[in-house]
Known about the structure:
Elements: H1 4-8, E1 10-16, E2 24-30, E3 38-47, H2 50-58, E4 68-75, E5 88-92, E6 101-105, E7 109-111, H3 118-138, E8 145-149, H4 154-165, E9 169-173, H5 177-180, E10 188-190, H6 193-198, E11 202-207, H7 211-218, E12 221-229, E13 251-254, H8 266-278, E14 285-290, H9 294-302, E15 309-313
Amino acid sequence: MENNFYLKQQMDAIFTAPHTPAGLDFRRTDIPLPKPNQALVKVKAFTVNQGETRTALSTTESYIVGWDFAGIVVKAAEDGSTPKEGTRVFGYIAQGSWAEYLVAPGGLMAEIPEGITDAQAACLPIAGLTALDCLDASGDIQGLRVLITGAAGGVGRFACQLAANAGAKVFAVSRRTELANLLQNPSGIFKDAAEAKAAGEYDIIWDSIGGDTLATALTALSRNGICINYGNSAREFSNINIRSAGWPLHRIKCIWLGREPLFPSTPMLERLAAMVENGSLNTPIDLELPWKSIFTAVNKLLQQQVNGKVVLHVA
């Protein structure tokens, strides 16, 4: 099929719209033309994440929103580096998944096993990869006390499951303690880091909140403990007294998606999909809607009216 075919065709997509009340807008635009190392994917489902949504609603630029996706390859990469045409795939891109079509390199996608739905697959990339990154960066955590902040969030729900499956004693911090009760048999549930600190020390801390939560959590880190930070939902600086926190005895790491050119994500995506397929990892979907209901989905997410992942289906 000739590349010119795509240039003549258009698609619907959700763009940022900085000068409108909603901040988002459906528009017609050209179907993207894939580079030799990219596949063209027909999007079947995508998720709505806090990070991409807040960024989209605060930007002054115009672009197609979206990270996670599940879909079908309609044109494989010319260099053979992606799954073949007709293959169901899931993955993520820097922006552009809230659309009928997208282009992505093979390193940012993986095949969807037969037993997994598009909605389940779309939940895995951003949230699942971040949680799996935390697990891999922590080493062997069997029997260790692991404190997870933001435990009822998108990443937190996956993180708690992965830590528990690895044999850790999981302690959850969530302002919405009623949601934390949905987690997989936590050893403790706390409303904040101060309450968690009062319950003892922790060998591992996975933090998504930053600010005072991170600063307090670090003071509860055990000797030679590891703290992994992967977000700053508090949007605050962390004021840390290095000496009192025992900094020389601790290790702190920061994890952010974005290094894929050096370390492709396909193997990790395949691991996550295998866990879902064998039943050891649950995809906590709370809301599924047609993608034309994006405004409803965004409002519910930002107003904390959902208890899990938000998935939109593209017609």
